[in-house]
Specification:
128 residues, two-stranded antiparallel ribbon, 6 helices
Length: 128
Amino acid sequence: MMEIIKPDYDNCILNIIASILKHFGAQTEYSTIELLDRILLKDYKNIVLMVFDGMGVDILEKHLPHTSFLRSNMKQQVTSVFPSTTTAAMTAYYSGLSPNEHGWLGWSLYFKEFNGCIPLQIRIVLQN
């Protein structure tokens, strides 16, 4: 049985972006990742963020030995956003906003009534 991992919005991809934004003096409503903040104290002019879509820790542990480059250099595990679709997650990286804020959950959706894919933007509105 697969373990369900829930997003941790104090330790997720949005917090990576928050740390980068903080490094460059930009405002963000999200908390930062302390480890990344300490690394960025070196006052880097450029930061390269590489995103490997769908390559979580489980995949690394299943397919790579402990001594592999990726596993031996892993510093901290973070979660994705919810929903953890490529569209929602990549838009969170691009914008620094959660899926609830940016509203992109999928690129397109097939509608049989139109016999085609239609570009899709869904806005989730949560109310108390």
